[in-house]
Design brief:
The structure is a single chain. This protein is globular. It starts with a helix and ends in a 63-residue tail after the last strand. With 600 residues, it is mainly α. The strands form two sheets. A two-stranded antiparallel ribbon has the order 1-2. The protein has a single domain, classed as Cytochrome C Oxidase, Chain A (Up-down Bundle), CATH 1.20.210.
């Protein structure tokens, strides 16, 4: 970017300063400042996370103590879904469906990509703001509207969508199929269409910002790995989200206009329906073409955050910077050609199955590169054990344990035996759910001082980490074993099968761990919201980190830097470098005499 560009930006930021002294609405509600929009995403994601976790506790209680009456069911689900406090099977399916949808799209996608892309991209590349502040604000408000619609769908006649979070037809395509196929399902589809529009706006903005607004000296090979990960995530979103949009629109057509894209030869209560020529497997292809890249849309930001925090807290340069970039790009490319491994049991041609097996096993290579690089960076580092570092180490642990079971599920012959059992739940919750949440928690603890100018309580952070880590494995580790033994998922109760009686105790154990783990998230919530107002005031660079966001003043201004934009002289991982007075060298620090001129 030219010097004139800097000056223009500089003047522009002064205009912003005057505007931003405006009223409450322009500052906190319809803000164009990327830092405020990041906070909006984060707090919306946390609220949705509370809803998603409460749902999972309700259906866990139902599986552990089937047909029991609970007052909490009566309070939260009402007489219709839980007469006399006993959960109906329709309610169970609806809870499972909405829990999956909310956690995948509204918590993990928003909490990671929405929050950290907005917060970090302009700050870490040395830009005043996003390429388009207005588009950025619009993407948040569309996300908010879609979240509100998803919540409203819980209260409509017939109940919320209940065909699984993947909403396979015919349950999702026939309004009369089951109670949850009515209005709730239509709202689900409309909400998802708006969510996709929001994601696309955000992603285009992130990509444009990284390509066009890097400060002087900030070449692509000097970008922090967080920016690489968030940039690549945005590219995956742009490629794959439109496919899910088409699936949602075609489903709406099938539901409302009598078309037959996904329906064929359907009998309802003995009556032959007029649909013919469609195929539910076509829907599966469209859904999973987004559904699998979605896993990486969720996990890549967590990986980028982990790279940044591990290097900073090990006081060591990240090991294999270029290999890490290559693995991010490799994951992005491969993630779009592996979707068929979700469909090994759909009657797919076995030859096609073997192709998808090959590409799925291939993606283990860049994933392993990342895991080894994290471990090598930590190796013999001068480690600072703060909560964000603990969550990053937890991330590496769950990513490896969850990833190993992925090798089993990625093989078509082995997958057929454990498909749709608890083994699958254990795998993807560890690798996607827990790992991504750990990445999100790590990012919140690390960048909280940047967001709110205050520090979170470290001791509460330690309690939060250790209880969460023990409970997460307590919930998902036993599921591998009951899954291998054949216990199917999404069953409201297993009492009809004497074969599964012996797993009763295991399900109770899992549920107890889930309840304890969820209760201790209250420690995090207290720490988060209390620290926003009463936490210890943060210094400018509390973690002694190299990246540019810590060169901005603690109090927020729209435009990030009060004067000139910083100029970048080095890569972001010059920690503990010989010849320097400190053990870190910010990116905007010129080379000094006596420093080893290592070329990166």
């Amino acid at each position: 970017m030219s010097v004139e560009g800097h000056e223009n930006n500089h003047d522009h930021s002064h205009d912003h300063d005057h505007h931003d002294k405006g009223n409450f609405f322009t500052k906190y509600v319809f803000s164009l400042d990327h830092k405020m929009i990041a906070k909006q995403y984060l707090i919306t994601g946390i609220v949705m996370g509370i809803v998603g976790i409460v749902m999972s506790l309700l259906f866990r209680m139902q599986i552990a103590w089937p047909e029991e009456s609970f007052t909490v069911f009566k309070w939260l689900l009402g007489d219709k879904m839980a007469p006399d406090g006993v959960m109906k099977n329709d309610a169970y399916l609806a809870l499972v469906t909405m829990h999956g949808t909310i956690m995948v799209f509204f918590v993990l996608t928003a909490g990671l990509s929405g929050t950290f892309s907005n917060l970090l991209i302009p700050l870490q590349i040395g830009a005043r703001d996003m390429a388009s502040g207005f588009l950025n604000m619009l993407s948040y408000w569309l996300f908010f509207i879609s979240a509100v619609l998803m919540i409203i769908s819980l209260f409509v006649e017939g109940g919320p969508a209940s065909s699984g979070w993947t909403v396979y037809p015919p349950l999702s395509a026939l309004p009369k199929a089951i109670p949850g196929s009515g209005m709730g399902m239509t709202l689900w589809l409309v909400s998802m269409a708006i969510f996709i529009a929001s994601s696309l706006m955000g992603s285009l903005n992130y990509v444009a910002t990284v390509i066009n607004l890097r400060t002087k000296g900030m070449s692509m090979t000097r970008l922090p790995l967080t920016v690489w990960a968030l940039f690549t995530t945005a590219v995956i979103g742009i490629v794959s989200f439109p496919v899910l949009l088409s699936a949602a629109l075609l489903l709406l057509f099938d539901r409302s206009f009598g078309t037959s894209f996904f329906l064929s030869d359907i009998y309802l209560a003995g009556e032959v329906l007029h649909y013919q020529g469609g195929s539910p497997v076509l829907y599966e292809h469209l859904f999973w073409f987004l559904g699998h890249p979605e896993v990486y849309i969720v996990i890549l930001p967590a990986m980028g955050i982990t790279s940044e925090i591990i290097a900073c807290n090990a006081r060591k340069p990240i090991f294999g910077y270029r290999a890490m970039i290559a693995s991010i790009l490799g994951i992005a490319f491969l993630s779009t050609i592996v979707w068929g491994h979700h469909m090994f049991v759909s009657g797919m041609n076995p030859f096609l199955g073997s192709v998808f097996t090959f590409t799925t096993l291939l993606i283990a290579i860049p994933s392993a590169v990342k895991a080894f690089n994290y471990i090598t960076t930590i190796w013999s580092g001068n480690i600072q054990m703060n909560p964000s570092m603990l969550f990053c180490i937890g991330f590496v642990s769950t990513f490896i344990t969850g990833g190993l079971t992925g090798i089993i599920l990625g093989d078509s012959t082995l997958d057929i035996n454990v498909h749709d059992t608890y083994f699958v739940i254990a795998h993807f919750h560890l690798v996607m759910g827990i790992s991504a949440l750990y990445g999100m928690f790590a990012g919140i603890y690390h960048w909280f001082p940047k967001m709110f100018g205050r520090m979170m309580n470290k001791n509460l952070g330690y309690i939060h980490f250790w209880v969460t880590a023990v409970c997460a494995y307590g919930v998902f580790f036993p599921m591998h074993f009951i899954g291998l033994a054949g216990l199917p998922r999404r069953y409201y109760s297993n009492t009809a099968f004497p074969l599964f009686d012996e797993f009763y105790d295991v399900n109770v154990l899992i549920t107890v761990f889930a309840l304890v783990g969820a209760a201790f998230q209250l420690v995090f919530l207290w720490n988060f919201f209390y620290s926003i107002f009463y936490g210890k005031k943060a210094t400018q660079n509390p973690w002694r980190s190299n990246s540019l966001e810590w060169t901005t003043p603690v109090e927020h201004i729209h435009g990030n830097w009060p004067g000139e934009l910083p100029v970048v002289y080095r890569w972001p991982y010059d920690y503990s470098k010989p010849g320097l007075p400190d053990d870190f060298a910010p990116q905007n620090m010129p080379y000094v005499e006596g420093e080893e001129q290592l070329h990166h």
